[in-house]
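Q: Got a minute? One more chain.
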Amino acid sequence: MIRPVSKVQKAKALFREGKYQEAIQEYQWLLQEEEYNPEYWNALGDIYRVEGKEESAIDSYHNAVDAYRRDALYNNAIAVCKKIHRIDPEDEQVYKGLGELYYEIGLQSEAIENFIEYANRKRKQGNLGEVVKIYKYLKEKIPENKLIDNELQELYLQQGIEKAKSLGPLQKETLPQEPIPSQPVEEKLSPASADDYLQQALILLKGPGAVKDLKVKEVKKEEKVEKPAPKKPAPPTEEKKRDTTTNLYDRKYFFKRVEEEVEKAEREKTYLFLLILDIDNLNKINIDFGDACGDTMLRQLADILVNLVTDDEMLFRYDGDEFAILFPTLSKQQVEQKIKEINQNVESFEFEKGVTFSLTYSLVTYPDDAIGAKVLIDQALEKLAIQRPADLTKKEYIPIHSSELIGRDQELEKLEQLLKSEQDNIALITGKPFVGKTRFVSQFMENIKFKGV
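A: Always. Here it is, folded:
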């Protein structure tokens, strides 16, 4: 079929001129000719959104997502899903769709995060069957993830308990013995305790033979001892939020503020920009000029950044040679202008002992690049690793998302590969405070001792 180029151009021109109804008619005509063209559905959704017809916009965007998926244009489909999310954050189907799309392009962590968000929403609605379906799907696609396997087992058990309870009053069983005249027949009630419901659940799930493998423990009731209410920890003082070298907000406070700002952006349907900047080869500077010189240089750079950010923007020292800035009110063009100003000030400043250096930047946007604070930070760090000059020591980020020891096989394997590489590498274990980064390193050391690496 010949593409009706003139019609497409006319529709776009009408949209630019603000003639929305006429533009809608043109795109509807085009869709009669090409029903599964994702560009037409996407453009139609944009027009409806400008007009304030959110339901029509969402319907058009969903059609665009389906059409992009048909053409295996998964990144385009993800971008449209994010448009739907900005209009209606409560549209739970978006999370399921994003999970499927991220899996298609190989981003397993993002896929799992969105699937679990969808499952949690279904769980709150009491739709346990749909939750089980999601975890069964995840187990089929990512069988090596032990956390998914454990959650699925718990769901099966919970589902079995609910089925057992739905049977109503448990039946009475008459003992197989002759009744004594003038005495009532001895009866034994079927189990009615929580433990016995577990037996009923296992029977429903695995058959009668499963009960013999279950040892029901009798739990003795303990006398309640009233304990004094724990004292609430005092809120952190301003000094405890600060990095000791630069006096900027520290890494722990950074995680907290990112979560708060993402929630605010989601609530107000606005954009949030996260900029992470890295000093190229700070380790070499410390070796050539000394650690004291490196610390002075960090303080000088911090002062430059403090003078460039406004009260609406937030500046942090994220890591040894990395700083982070949150921009909740600027546009992308304004943030890019801010980066130019940083470069100009760094180039013109006379640092300690005449040290010169360059900066590598990573800029990500909520919600375009990620839905959720954790993923936004991970995306920024991954982008930073890619953009760093190739001749520098390679720095690899290994994010730790869960305090559980199981399910870390991929992270352990990545760290082992870095150790075996002939190239000079720096591995940075990242994650929220108390997530278990030290335990992860200890676990890694035990593994390599066992393997004799």
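A: The two ends are 61 Å apart (CA to CA).
Q: Perfect, thanks.
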